[in-house]
Design brief:
By secondary structure, the protein is an alpha/beta fold. It has helices at about 15-30, 50-60, 75-80, 95-110, 125-135, 160-170, 190-200, 230, 235-255, 265-275, 410-420, 430-440, 460-465, and strands at about 5-10, 40-45, 85, 115-120, 145-150, 180, 210-220, 285-290, 305-310, 325-330, 335-345, 360-370, 370-380, 390-395, 450. The chain is built from 13 helices and 15 strands. It is globular. Bound molecules: 6-O-phosphono-beta-D-glucopyranose. 6-O-phosphono-beta-D-glucopyranose (BG6) binds near residues 221, 240, 241 and 337.
């Protein structure tokens, strides 16, 4: 693999601290970085090399629920040897002159090819000026080596702004240089859905309208917005996780088999699902947890949603008429992310007269926690009488809280970008089709109902699914426990 320089704009920001620096440590620990790789962190305040070192060390050793394993000194030293710090204002052209000189110096010292990844861990309203400045120093041009750009959500705040942003991106970079990151695509448990569905033969023939009654997708968190009020209050739950992570879960669970394992074929199938989702604002419930208005940096009159539930269907022959219920939000009963496929119950079930005798089989892709894939089935309770016991056939990862068994999504995706693999990144079409679906819901002026922290959301969300004769499944912690 070719060596390269990674330039992180916003190295002292939240994203860099929580995700990027830990991911780089993990990549280093696995010896995946080419020898001459350099990393340049950019932020506004001046820092000496020693202060920068202390900062990186502190980030890696601070409490981080996404990164709980021990930091090894030798790995830290190896990583820090690659790291450099530049200070400056991101809208000041002089910073880019300094950056350009520094990059040339690194290239000549290490006989590098000029490969670069720019990671914009900054507010999107700075992108335009960052791009202009990069261009003025010709830093977006692929002269000798490759140049890649990594950005992540929010990619726009609605369809129009997403289109404007994509236009802006494409006026400085080619699509094959742009890595739009949705970290759910880098989740091992999400990618395993592809292996489970398309690497085996027995389940795929069952995933269609003949056998599936409905699908439920849940991504709930038992914590609130923390210190992110400034961002969250202008976005809300539907756009924060619904527009991206949950729609991706939906696509992974329902897409047709790609013709081959390639970026183009996989993305095409995901996009086909996203473009064919029925949208109806009448099938939307929004909620806000009690106490939200007192959170830091939240407008005391805010009507921002911290919970949403919607129903959609896929306009294709395979899933025609199969409802898909999606819900997500904060300060709810449990932190759990899963996809449940609820199968139809045949009328002629032999044991339908017994307790549980008509319970449906459910296939659960548990993204987190108690990660795994399980099938809820009924078995005979041992004994002289006939009794049925609902239980789980399970594949479990059994990850401890400090488990390092599989890569964090950022580790996975940064490494993919280094390799030049865009399979698990969003292209223009994908982001825009997500917005095409979410826009009418987000703009619908649906009433925002309040709910108690620790509940499963407003009662209207229960009524909404019950009117279709169904109910939300309570995510089980009985399977794949450690
Ligand atoms: C982020 C959202 O994109 O995803 C957060 O902004 C949310 O609000 C997070 O908590 C969930 O990610 P994960 O990986 O913890 O499920």
């Amino acid at each position: 693999m070719d060596s390269f320089t990674l330039i992180i704009f916003g190295i002292t920001g939240n994203l860099a601290q929580i995700k990027l620096i830990p991911a780089l440590y993990d990549i280093e620990e696995k010896n995946l970085l080419p020898k001459e790789t350099s990393i340049i962190g950019i932020a506004r305040s001046p820092q000496s090399k020693e202060e920068f070192r202390e900062y990186i060390k502190k980030v890696l050793t601070s409490e981080n629920r996404h990164h709980q394993h021990a930091i090894k000194d030798e790995v830290f030293e190896k990583l820090f040897t690659r790291m450099h710090y530049l200070n400056g204002n991101l809208i000041d052209r002089n910073l880019y002159k300094k950056l350009s000189q520094f990059l040339s110096q690194l290239d000549s010292e290490n006989k590098k090819l000029g490969n670069r990844i720019f990671y914009l861990a900054t507010y999107p309203d700075l992108y335009d000026q960052i791009f202009q400045n990069l261009q003025s120093e010709k830093l977006n041009e692929q002269k000798n080596g490759w140049v890649r750009l990594m950005i992540e959500k929010p990619i726009g705040n609605d369809l129009k702004s997403a289109k404007d942003l994509n236009k802006l991106l494409l006026s400085y970079f080619r699509e094959d240089q742009i890595y739009r990151l949705d970290h759910y695509l880098g989740k091992e448990t999400l990618q395993n859905i592809l292996a489970f569905r398309f690497g085996n033969g027995i389940f795929e023939p069952l995933l269609n309208k003949d056998h599936v009654d409905h699908i439920q997708i849940t991504a709930t968190e038992d914590f609130g917005i923390g210190k992110r009020g400034g961002y969250y209050d202008s976005v809300g739950a539907l756009k924060d996780v619904g527009q991206n992570h949950l729609l991706q879960m939906l696509a992974f669970a329902t897409m047709d088999a790609p013709t081959d394992y390639s970026d183009a074929a996989l993305t095409k199938e995901r996009v086909k699902i996203l473009e064919n989702l029925e949208v109806d604002p009448k099938n939307l419930v929004l909620g806000q947890y009690d106490g939200y208005l007192k959170e830091e940096s939240v407008n005391p009159n805010s009507s921002t949603d911290t919970f949403f539930a919607f129903k959609t269907m896929i306009k294709n022959a395979r899933f025609k008429g199969v409802p898909i219920y999606v819900r997500g939000g904060k300060k709810l009963s449990q932190t759990v992310t899963e996809i449940s496929i609820i199968f139809k119950t045949p009328h002629n079930r032999l044991f339908k007269h017994l307790r549980s005798g008509t319970e449906p089989n459910v296939l659960i892709f548990r993204i987190q926690p108690n990660e795994g894939i399980v099938l809820k089935i009924l078995v005979k309770k041992p004994g002289h009488r006939w009794e049925l016991d609902p239980t789980y056939m399970q594949f479990c990862y059994r990850l401890g809280s400090d488990s390092h068994y599989f890569p964090d999504p950022y580790e996975r995706l940064i490494f993919d970008a280094i390799k030049g693999d865009q399979t698990f990144f969003n292209n223009v079409e994908e982001v825009e089709s997500e917005w095409k679906f979410i826009d009418p819901l987000a703009k619908s002026k649906t009433k925002v109902h309040s709910y108690n922290p620790g509940s499963w959301g407003p009662k209207e969300a229960d009524q909404f699914i019950q009117k279709n004769g169904r109910y939300w499944l309570e995510p089980s912690m009985d399977f794949c426990a450690i």
